[in-house]
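Shipment paperwork, digital attachment
Item: protein structure file
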Amino acid sequence: MLKATVKWFTLLLISTLLFPIAAQPALADSLDTSEQHIQLVINGQLYTQPDGEPAPYINMQNRTMVPVSLLVKAMNLPGASIEWDEPARTVTVRYTTHTIVFTHGAASVDINNDTVVLDSAAEIRQGRLFAPVRALVGALGGSLQWESARGLIYIATEPSTAAPPTGSEADALIGQQATATLEALAEQDWGALAELVHPDRGVRFSPYTDVDPVEQTRLLPEELLDAAERSKLRQWGYYDGTGDPIELSIQDYWLQFVYPHDYRTAPERSYNRQLFHGNVANNASWVYPGAIIAEYHFDGIDPQYGGLDWRSLRLVFQPLHGQWYLVGIINDQWTS
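Attachment content:
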């Protein structure tokens, strides 16, 4: 539910809109999205625009614009509705107790009859009404983060914006699933693992702590159960240091990046608390908003390396219909 009052949201929206989403300005003579590489990640899933539909773009005011109706549908908000008024050239979004109206050419948005001034006007482009992404997501109770290096906008819908549980609360929610996942990983029990994986989102494999929702491999439960799929060579990312592609079957990837040690005996464990920081940024909370991340950590394996061979395994769980499912397996280790 949207809990903030309209007055509070108006102040918040105005303050956040003072800062641009985009890290670099759009070209003055071109708004070609193929050059800007803007992509949206919604609750951990890469948004794929429908065939024939226009893509997000950066406008002359350096704001990222998105097609309102398409993004609302992609956010999958329960009970949300969208209406287009051709004579008025407005799109109206209704979600819970809020009504949000964008109008072509207007640098403002109407939220429950309260007008919030924007610094970039909504506009029709290729038959769709586009609006600033921060304004739209904020009005719907969500949040977003911008990653300039990859040109990614991470969007969390309202249920995913709450602070994730830690400690005993998290253990009560996913403790059994985490333990069962470790057992399945240790035994390479594909059937047991498939039952724990999110049925729609699958599980993404990250060879290092930086999660790449565009490039990294994601497998659905049925792919884990298929022996032919498990023997297939896949590219899982790139080796740290050399930059060479990691091209392995899942069985070989397993030995290097999933279960090189028995994490059931890991001396340190946590929920939503990173136990050790290497030199690579941990972006898992952006990619998996609202998730519970169980971490299992070894300070070192062989004493001769003085702790440089530390390893962590992170298991990422997100909810679906009251049940928590595995959506990410992240390896973390010392990198050069």
